[in-house]
Amino acid sequence: MTHVVVVGGGPAGNQVASRAASLGAEVTLVEDQVVGGAAHLWDCIPSKAMIATAGALSFSRRMAGLGLSGGSQAASVDAAALRRRIEQVTSRLQGSVEDLLASQGVRTLRGEGRLTGAHTVAVRLADGGEGVLRADAIVVATGSRPRLPEWAEPDGERVLTTRQAYPPPEVPEHLVVVGSGVTGVEFVHMFSSLGSKVSLIVSRQHVLPHKDAEVAAALEDELLRRGVQLYKGARAEGVERTPQGIVVHCDDGRTVAGSHVLIAVGSIPNSDRLGLEAAGVTVDKWGYVTVNHHCQTNVPHIYAAGDVCGKLPLSSVASMQGRKVAEHIMGLHTREHRHIDYDKAASAVFTEPEIADVGLAEAEAFATGRKIRVTKVPFGASAKALINDDPRGFVKIISDPATGVVLGGCVVGNQAAELISVIALAVTAGLKVADLVESCLVHPSLSEALADAAE
Ligand SMILES: Cc1cc2nc3c(=O)[nH]c(=O)nc-3n(C[C@H](O)[C@H](O)[C@H](O)COP(=O)(O)OP(=O)(O)OC[C@H]3O[C@@H](n4cnc5c(N)ncnc54)[C@H](O)[C@@H]3O)c2cc1C
Question: Whose CA is nearest to atom 53 of ligand 1?
Fold first, then answer.
């Protein structure tokens, strides 16, 4: 029987373990924190649980638009209850992953794994003791951790990493967020909804530098409407603790004072202290494990999946890689196996307005000279958006003018992360705009805007 040893039990690792076990492998999963990984402990789940609360609070402030009164005075944050809620959601999810793996016969070891050779993993168990596992295939799925610039020393009180903010003991009076990528703007949304004054340091000329400019502009409009102060074109280069809180120093001489600062400037791979060199596995200059389209490293029976291989740092991508790795190990790749097309992965930014996109972006098409058809409708024209009293945002669909094949799209507005699924399916399956237009959808629904945008 093939013995698969998986190091790291986040979305990538637990998907490898589950799928390989279901295909008949003997699987040992080594995890040093919790099964579910950083995704459950610090990243996707706690951040979105907190955003659910933030969104409800933000909604309560707009209740007058729905003919209700008094709500906005009633709602306020109970930081302890919020923390309990986040813990409940994460522990319930962890429990269900653990139960599933146990029911599939996966052996889970709590401890730190380290490769000691091309077929061996040493485990330092959390409750003491050590052991060595022999494996036919090894999967490195150890994820990543927040990148900490040398000028910042997080203290968990005033100078926070993203892992210390769920929520801090008190809701910050004035939070300065450094970093305006997806993680940074999500924290801006969270804390501005929870009532903090927020300042955002934006190193480029607009937030979300890798997104469609129109999408970024829609988010900036909302941030400014909320009173978020944007410091554009400024790079933070120092943080000073003061009796009142913190001061962030920027490279253009500006200073931003606040009560707390949150550093959200990306992540680095957990590939150090893993013994990769002992197994002959190579990493790139940033420390990401280099892999081919099957997620195989340069040592063919050693794979890497998830954030540690640096393809696309999304939980959904990590899970998909995990499944594909298990299938490759078990020889299923010869049948109907499709490589992951990272260009077709949908992603979302859980802000207000919510943002989601998939496939080809307008700017990308212009940069390569590719001819595209761009069609767009605002939610202001949607019956359901008006019924919901939230007509912010739009749907944009990008298609091939010659064939009508849907190449990409984005949604800005309420439920964008759900609505993008339809465009993602169209992009993956090669559907045409006519397929969207001719789908007879529910009325009134936000989805109707997708069909209208495809017209
Ligand atoms: C604030 C934030 C919010 C995010 N929100 C989203 C979102 O909404 N949607 C989305 O798709 N993505 C989101 N992401 C990205 C997502 O969290 C990651 O892409 C995902 O967690 C990667 O999964 P993974 O399995 O590679 O690693 P991880 O989830 O990091 O899991 C790796 C596990 O390996 C363990 N490990 C490390 N070294 C060892 C070792 N030597 N021995 C044993 N175990 C070890 C770690 O403790 C960890 O538990 C977010 C990221 C951040 C920072």
Answer: 43
Class (C level, CATH) for 3-146+269-334: alpha beta
Tell me which of 7, 15, 41, 44 to substitute to probe ligand 1's pocket, judged by most ligand atoms within 8 Å of the beta carbon.
44
Longest dimension (CA), the chain: 67
- 204 CA to centre of ligand 1 in angstroms: 27
Candidate of 90, 307, 312 to mutate for ligand 1, largest count of ligand atoms within 8 Å of Cβ: 307
Per-residue pLDDT of the chain (455 residues; tens, 9 = 90+): 999 999 999 999 999 999 999 999 999 999 999 999 999 999 999 999 999 999 998 888 888 888 888 755 667 888 889 889 999 999 999 999 999 999 999 999 999 999 999 999 999 999 999 999 999 999 999 999 999 999 999 999 999 999 998 776 778 999 999 999 999 999 999 999 999 999 999 999 999 988 989 999 999 999 999 999 999 999 999 999 999 999 999 999 999 999 999 999 999 999 999 999 999 999 999 999 999 999 999 999 999 999 999 999 999 999 999 999 999 999 987 656 678 899 999 999 999 999 999 999 999 999 999 999 999 999 999 999 999 999 999 999 999 999 999 999 999 999 999 999 999 999 999 999 999 999 999 999 999 999 999 98
> Which residues make beta-bridge pairs with 397?
375, 409
Atom of ligand 1 nearest to the CA of 9: 33
Q: What does the block give as tokens for 68?
A: 């209700």
List CB contacts of 44: < 8 A, sequence separation 6 or more: 315
What does the domain layout of the chain look like in residue ranges?
Answer: 3-146+269-334, 159-265, 353-454
According to the CATH classification, is domain 353-454 in 3.30.390.30?
yes
**Ligand 1 cavity residues, CB under 6 Å:** 7-13, 30-33, 37-39, 43-44, 47-48, 112-113, 141-144, 162, 183, 270, 274, 306-308, 313-316, 318
Which pTM was predicted? 0.95
187 CA closest ligand 1 atom index: 1
Residues 201 and 177: beta-carbon distance below 8 Å:
yes
Name the residue with the closest Cα to ligand 1, atom 35.
8
Ligand 1 site-directed mutation target among 15, 142, 160, 268, most atoms within 8 Å of CB: 142
Nearest CA among 56, 78, 83 for reference residue 193: 56
Top-level CATH class of 159-265? Answer: alpha beta
What length does the chain have?
Answer: 455
| Atom of ligand 1 minimally distant from the CA of 347 | 11
Mutate to test the pocket of ligand 1, among 41, 43, 178, 281 (most ligand atoms within 8 A of CB): 43
CA 77 centroid distance within chain = 25
Q: Tell me if domain 159-265 and domain 353-454 are identical in fold.
A: no
- In 3D space, the residue among 392, 398, 376, 390 whose CA is nearest the CA of residue 449 turns out to be 376
